[in-house]
């Protein structure tokens, strides 16, 4: 297998070998916006996206859908009849030949015939759960080598709709870092709501801000394309 390179490096090589493909002005900015959308899809910068593997996935058939009421109705339905324990932080999982013991932070231990571990990659990387016996080396290596992407949502709620009835509103720039896009929730929900969705290095930088500053930054991006945009009534900032 040839050595892998990033999407960003591959594009740079192509443009270096084919100068006539270089874009200028608005065409260049639009190309950066499409790369920004790719970064949003993978929740990382183009210089971290694999050229060999970026398209190694199988998309499910059918169109996109939006859970207008959120995922809570789905979760509540699936949870019916199940014994779910909230507030139980797992600290140790011990596997015996005929049972599994799961110990939580308050010292209580649950015993079962088997256990399915579905904690997020970030939890596994933090090593807050002790496995006994320890995980196989190939699993530990995978946990070390895999990265966690960053994409957050900044929800802006307005008193009325002042933007076009489209699915996305895009802000183009000469760099992917300066590009951004807003998801138009009014189209699906009827509410005057836009969702700013930063990813990669931009999302990491925004996470360092206060919620108020993050919302103001998102609003400043919106004003780049809609200078007369009204101030939002309120906002909600995720921290994923």
Automatic annotation (TrEMBL):
Parts of the chain that traverse the membrane: none
Record's superkingdom? Eukaryota
Q: Please report the name of this protein according to its UniProt entry.
A: Amine oxidase domain-containing protein
Q: Which InterPro entries match?
A: Amino_oxidase, FAD/NAD-bd_sf, Flavin_monoamine_oxidase
What family does the database annotate?
Answer: Belongs to the flavin monoamine oxidase family.
Q: Which organism is it from?
A: Aegilops tauschii subsp. strangulata (Goatgrass)
Q: Sorted alphabetically, which keywords does the UniProt record give?
A: Oxidoreductase
Domain Amine oxidase spans what residues?
15-240
Please give the Pfam families that the UniProt record associates with this protein.
Amino_oxidase
Task: Quote the cellular component terms of the Gene Ontology held in the record.
Answer: peroxisome
Biological-process GO terms, alphabetical: spermine catabolic process; thermospermine catabolic process
Q: Write out the GO MF terms.
A: flavin adenine dinucleotide binding; spermine oxidase activity
């Amino acid at each position: 297998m040839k050595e892998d390179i990033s999407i960003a490096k591959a594009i740079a090589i192509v443009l270096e070998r084919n100068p006539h493909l270089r874009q200028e002005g608005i065409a260049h900015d639009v190309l950066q916006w499409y790369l920004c959308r790719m970064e949003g899809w993978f929740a990382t910068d183009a210089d971290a996206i694999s050229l060999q593997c970026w398209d190694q996935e199988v998309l499910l058939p059918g169109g996109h859908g939006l859970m207008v009421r959120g995922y809570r109705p789905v979760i509540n339905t699936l949870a019916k009849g199940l014994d779910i324990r909230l507030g139980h932080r797992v600290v140790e999982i011990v596997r015996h030949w005929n049972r599994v013991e799961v110990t939580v932070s308050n010292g209580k231990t649950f015993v079962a015939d088997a256990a399915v571990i579905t904690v997020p990659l970030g939890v596994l990387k933090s090593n807050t759960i002790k496995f006994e016996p320890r995980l196989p080396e190939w699993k530990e290596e995978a946990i070390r080598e895999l990265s966690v992407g960053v994409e957050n949502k900044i929800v802006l709620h307005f008193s009325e709709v002042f933007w076009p009835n489209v699915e996305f509103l895009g802000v183009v720039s000469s760099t992917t870092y300066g590009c951004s896009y807003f998801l138009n929730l009014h189209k699906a929900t009827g509410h005057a709501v836009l969702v700013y969705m930063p990813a990669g290095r931009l999302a990491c930088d925004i996470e360092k801000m206060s919620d108020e500053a993050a919302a103001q930054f998102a609003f400043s991006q919106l004003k780049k394309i809609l200078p007369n945009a009204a101030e939002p009534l309120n906002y909600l900032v995720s921290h994923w």
